[in-house]
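Fill in residues.
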């Protein structure tokens, strides 16, 4: 079966998509299996019901704003804790997995395709230590992978909780306290200030939510904010540069994201979907977000 343009997943030993269907997905993070909602899984599951009921943690929706993860009887010990938390790794990076009331767990495995790209392009910017700006950096996976690879990383997020989590992940990954510059700020405000300061970056990551609030009460709405943000980021580009824009649960297409980045002018432009593939022969692709990449002058 032919598949739409997909940035293919890269190996991630501590994660597996076991099955999907009936608007849910069944995943393994480390040794623990989670069952949680995914509205894109419109088909029927392939695995028997027994595989689903054996999940260690099941997300139970309590309202349209969230819910809770509930352990099954006999679940893995880490899943039965009052506040479940355990570690997973990708390459040399380590991350705390913590199920949240918003069904997220602190890591998005489909983004490993972009982490791998950062590693592959590390030596193509013409400098010993390329500068990377991670906007909407969340719990720091991309920032940590980049810092370990020798990038000079600035990580920006508007949530104190996310920044603290990212800092913990960095320490867990063996990074020094000053290996990443952690910034609590609104992404658009920070990008504009960096432009006024004359700062330039070799790699810029944008992974905005549909809606959010900044530390000073700023309101972020994707449809209103993304074009001004892309424009502001355009003032921060080095002569050799990579920009990655990815989204999830947004009502637009990869073509729309590509058109935004095309405003930067001549360069290499790619657009497609981030996805996870079910384990086993003939495993289906589960959509996990849209992504566009634009680069200029990078030696590959």
């Amino acid at each position: 079966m032919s598949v739409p343009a997909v940035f293919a997943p890269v190996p991630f030993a501590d994660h597996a998509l076991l099955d999907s269907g009936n608007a849910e997905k069944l995943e393994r993070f480390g040794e623990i299996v989670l069952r949680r909602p995914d509205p894109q899984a419109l088909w029927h599951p392939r695995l028997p019901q027994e595989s689903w009921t054996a999940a260690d943690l099941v997300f139970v929706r309590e309202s349209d704003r969230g819910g809770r993860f509930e352990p099954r009887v006999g679940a893995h010990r880490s899943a039965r804790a009052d506040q479940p938390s355990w570690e997973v790794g990708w390459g040399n990076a380590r991350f705390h997995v913590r199920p949240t009331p918003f069904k997220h767990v602190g890591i998005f495995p489909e983004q490993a395709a972009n982490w791998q790209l950062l590693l592959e392009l590390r030596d193509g910017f013409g400098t010993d230590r390329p500068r990377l700006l991670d906007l909407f950096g969340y719990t720091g996976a991309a920032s940590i992978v980049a810092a370990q690879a020798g990038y000079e990383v600035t990580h920006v997020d508007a949530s104190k909780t996310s920044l603290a989590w990212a800092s913990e992940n960095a320490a867990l990954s063996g990074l020094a306290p000053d290996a990443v510059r952690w910034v609590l700020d609104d992404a658009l405000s920070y990008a504009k200030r960096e432009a006024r300061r004359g700062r330039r970056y070799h790699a810029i990551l944008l992974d905005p939510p549909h809606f959010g609030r900044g530390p000073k009460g700023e309101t972020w709405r994707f449809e209103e904010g993304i074009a001004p943000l892309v424009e502001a980021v355009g003032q921060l580009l080095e002569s050799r540069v990579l920009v990655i824009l990815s989204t999830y649960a947004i009502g637009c297409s990869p073509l729309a994201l590509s058109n935004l980045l095309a405003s930067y002018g001549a360069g290499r432009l790619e657009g497609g979907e981030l996805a996870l593939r079910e384990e086993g022969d003939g495993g289906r692709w589960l959509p996990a977000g849209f992504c566009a990449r634009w680069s200029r002058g990078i030696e590959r």
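The longest helix spans residues 160-172.
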